[in-house]
Amino acid sequence: MAYKFSDNEALHSDALFFDAVNLKMMPFTDREGNTGPRHYLEPPGVKIEDNGDVTFCFYAPNAKSVSVAGFKGLAMTDKRHEMTKDKDGYWRVTVSGIPAGFHYHEYFVDGTCVLNPQAPIGYGAHKAINFFNIPEDDFYILKDVPHGTLRIEHFFSSVTGRYRDCWVYTPPGYDEETDRKYPVLYLQHGGGENETGWVWQGKVNYILDNLIAENKCQPMIIVMNCLYCVNHSKEEEFIPGDFDSMLMKDCIPFIEKKFRVAEGNENRAMAGLSMGSYQTTMTTMRNLGYFPYIGIFSGTIERRWYCDFNYYKNFEDAKAFNEKVKLFFFGYGEQEERIVKGLEKDLKYFDEAGINYQLYTCPGYHEWTVWRKCLREFVQRIFK
Predict the structure, then answer these.
(1) Which DSSP string do the residues of 339-381 spell out, in sequence order?
(2) Phi-psi region of 217 (alpha: psi -120 to 50; beta: other; left: phi over 0)
(3) Are 157 and 357 in contact (CB under 8 A)?
């Protein structure tokens, strides 16, 4: 059977498996009466049909009702689709009209929200959650190109008094070209997610592998931290902890000591999505010029109540700002109503103040379909 685009491992892999293996083990008795375990191929939790429809499947032989839904305000929507049980205990429903791209979704068994072990699983909305991808483009799929490496690094934080981890992408050739040094992008996830989001949901490593192979972006190191920086001995605010201090005092020195990092501020960038974009704004504005490349994905410059630093003063001297910031990038989905409205105000302010910025938009909602594209555009414009 021919290998289809929709079979690509990047569309199905998650923290639990690389290539979807839908296996179920049950007792089996052969013709000679010997009984033992045997593996059976189980229906996948999500199947993308050739016509673009999506068939959802959930095994619950004793359930009275099963349904599936997306999230309110996102492309799949929170409309519940009732599923029908077959004689083997599998519940199914085929849904038409779900747009191509990334989709979180949830299953409800007798009214209780549960996880489907046969569908890809990531961490989002502060919990383990199912997702799926309807193929839309090939820029984030696994291709026959040189691949970088994902590493999990542990470092001690003087800010939290605990060890933390960060996920680090090193580009193809990093381990072979031992005399070469690389620029670094510090890349943040959104609220309710963690440092794994840009890997399992965002496909950051495949996006960079493919762009580097096409000579569309510079080889770079990417560091992904959890934006929650909890010090358990203190009462915390909305965003727990002091992320800015942790990044500057603990993570960056660790990265620059352990990895072959090119020297100078011009080799440092920071970007983030949603809540991570506000984290990016607070950090880069507090340390203006330390990150000359700034990426704001699905965010505005709104100064929120949990930021104790008035970074608007940085915009008062447009000439000084433009000299220190080589790229002030904003990207968002055209169906993100709050972001669209907020950025209209922000960009008008920048135009009047003489602040240089670059804007990227694409069709989409507040989800990974948009953020992957924002990353693709941003990394092609940095470290030039």
Answers:
(1) HHHHHHHHHHHHHHHT---EEEEES--SSHHHHHHHHHHHHTT
(2) beta
(3) no
304-353 pLDDT, tens digit per residue, is 666 778 888 999 999 999 999 999 999 999 999 999 999 999 999 999 99
Asked whether the predicted pLDDT for residue 225 surpasses 70, the reply is yes
pLDDT value of position 1 = 42
| CATH architecture of residue range(s) 149-379 | 3-Layer(aba) Sandwich (3.40)
Secondary structure of residue 249 in the 3-state scheme: helix
Domain residue extents for the chain: 5-134, 149-379
Return the structure tokens found at 265. 């501020």
125 touches 192 (CB < 8 A): yes
pLDDT, mean over the chain: 93
Q: Taking Cα atoms as reference points, which of 232, 225, 160 lies closest to residue 194?
A: 225
CA distance 362 to 98: 17
Nearest to 131 by CA among 61, 84, 76, 79: 76
Say whether 149-379 and 5-134 share the same fold: no
Q: Which helix (H) or strand (E) holds 208?
A: helix 204-213
Residue 124's nearest CA partner among 60, 185, 74, 52 is: 74
The CA-to-CA distance between both ends of the chain, in Å, stands at: 44
Residue 363 has pLDDT above 60, yes or no: yes
Q: Are strands 268-273 and 293-297 parallel, antiparallel or unpaired?
A: parallel
Instruction: List the CATH code of the domain at 5-134.
Output: 2.60.40.10
Lookup: tokens for 270: 């920071």
Highest mean pLDDT, choosing among 48-52, 65-69, 275-279: 65-69
What is the three-class DSSP state of 81?
Answer: strand
* pLDDT tens-place string over residues 40-49: 888 999 999 9
If you write DSSP's letter for every residue of 215-228 in order, what string do you get?
T-S---EEEEE-S-
Residue 37, beta-bridge partner list: 27
Lowest-confidence segment of 17-21, 99-103, 108-112 by average pLDDT: 17-21
